[in-house]
Amino acid sequence: MAYPKLIENLMEQFAKLPGVGRRSAERMAFWILNHPREEAQELAESILRLKDGLRFCRLCNNLSDTEICLICSDTNRDEATVCVVEDPKDVLAIERTGSYRGHYHVLLGTIAPAEGRGPEDLKIPQLLYRISANNIKEVVIATDADNEGEMTALYLTKQLKPTGVKISRIGLGIPVGSSLEFADMSTLSMSLKARREILE
Length: 200
Prior knowledge:
There is one protein chain. 43% of the residues lie in helices and 14% in strands. It is an alpha/beta fold. It folds into two domains: 5-53, Helicase, Ruva Protein, domain 3 (Orthogonal Bundle), CATH 1.10.8; 61-197, 3-Layer(aba) Sandwich (Dna Topoisomerase Vi A Subunit, Chain: A, domain 2), CATH 3.40.1360.10. A five-stranded mixed β-sheet has the order 4-3-5-6-7. A two-stranded antiparallel sheet has the order 1-2. The longest helix is centred in the N-terminal third of the chain and has 17 residues, at 37-53. The relative contact order is 0.11. The model has no long low-confidence stretch (mean pLDDT 89).
């Protein structure tokens, strides 16, 4: 027996979320159905506020609810060091370690030819401008240890070499093929501290 169309429609929407199958979508739909209307409305409004109010930081592309994110606004951070990551989730992963006090630059992706994504689709020109316009001494490349992350790191290195800035790559410890956001805090912290300078 099928559920009424209103429930089926909601279940279909929930099933679009990552890691949510039909059974989980069904539980979520019935949770909403069994709770007061005010809670359902607050959930719906929270989603809309998130979509309407969140933006990318004008300087680093991290997620923010203001034009410039909290990290870029923090005058106590090391302005001479920029850590380049793929995604805003990577910023959060590194921040949780408490072992890095510089600034960030979020590329908003990686070079992935199989997905039709090239260097021109990333925020690389913005990074090069930041280096030329500011007193940046070191760029730490912290892309994932998978094929796309390594390809992006190699491309970045070639683009950054003419600037004369020190270029380093996060150290060993992050398993090949894995994502920064899933690395445990101690491994990620050690990897940042053990970063190696790229000389060639």
